[in-house]
Design a protein that fits this description.
Number of domains: 2
Radius of gyration: 21 Å
Strand content: 15-25%
Distance between the termini: 48 Å
CATH architecture of the largest domain: 2-Layer Sandwich
Oligomer: single chain
Largest sheet: 5 strands, antiparallel
Strand order of the largest sheet: 2-1-5-4-3
């Protein structure tokens, strides 16, 4: 597919989804002067946080660069299904987000423990950093986690692709390098799990920085340590964190953050 045809297909797909979206459900008045069904261009632009001119150019297939953030905003505003979302990313020439963890059952008591640890941030994850459960403390720490599609609730994805990840950690590069090293070790530990190669391919397509750190060939292991966090609302918060294995399922781990310091430092 040529670039021109792909841009035109992207515009046509967005237009079809816009016209299929009920304006009343999005808080707009139905009115009597609507010439087309669904949302107007300016209404979708408003919902997605874009200028009307910029969105119009996208829908018209203009030769402009469309960022991942813009595509994510449009997908959220249009409330696209997972297949529709994947199609939108493909038309925009962007790597698809992770497909999400394979369905796994969490012990109800473990999930209850995660919730009762609030306000301490806590979550349960797989060896591939897919989040299976988390409490409000962790959601608040990362910001916007509840609004992310299930497939993007993956710590690798959040660290490397979500802009808040790079802004959150004082030593982002150290966190990122350690995470990539742990990921390499996990691939060796579970060579028959298709989730690992799938996630590796996704990250290599989506992040140049991931590729750069991956090419370093480093290996890391999880160690309890201190995370230095600069939160946009709460300020500087340092946490010690610990990883606990589930006795009934070695591929599920509980991570708990313990606040140790809070200052007004930038």
């Amino acid at each position: 597919m040529s670039d021109l045809v792909q841009r035109e297909e992207l515009g046509a797909f967005l237009r079809s989804r816009r016209e299929a979206t009920d304006p009343v459900s999005e808080g707009f008045q139905p009115g009597t002067r609507r010439r087309t069904p669904g949302l107007r261009r300016e209404e979708l632009a408003q919902l997605a946080g874009l200028s009307v001119t910029w969105y119009t150019w996208i829908e018209q297939g203009r030769d402009i660069s469309v960022s991942r953030q813009v595509i994510e905003s449009l997908a959220t505003a249009l409330r696209l299904t997972q297949p529709e979302r994947a199609h939108l990313f493909t038309l925009a020439g962007l790597a698809l987000p992770p497909s999400g963890p394979h369905p796994r059952k969490i012990d109800p008591l473990l999930e209850r423990l995660v919730q009762e640890l609030h306000p301490r941030p806590a979550y349960v994850m797989t060896p591939w950093w897919d989040l299976l459960a988390y409490n409000d403390g962790y959601a608040e720490l990362l910001g916007g986690l509840d609004q992310r599609p299930e497939g993007e609730r993956n710590i690798l994805w959040l660290i490397f692709i979500e802009s808040r990840g790079s802004e959150l950690f004082v030593d982002w590069m150290g966190e990122a390098r350690s995470l990539v090293g742990q990921f390499r070790a996990t691939l060796a530990q579970y060579p028959d799990d298709p989730r690992g190669p799938e996630l590796l391919k996704t990250m290599q397509e989506a992040s140049d920085m991931f590729c750069e750190l991956w090419d370093e060939g480093g290996i890391s292991r999880f160690t309890s340590s201190r995370k230095k966090i600069r939160h946009p609302r709460l300020g500087r918060i340092d946490h010690d964190y610990v990883k606990l294995a589930d006795a009934h399922d070695e591929q599920q781990s509980l991570i708990v953050f313990l606040e140790v310091e809070r200052t007004d430092e930038d």
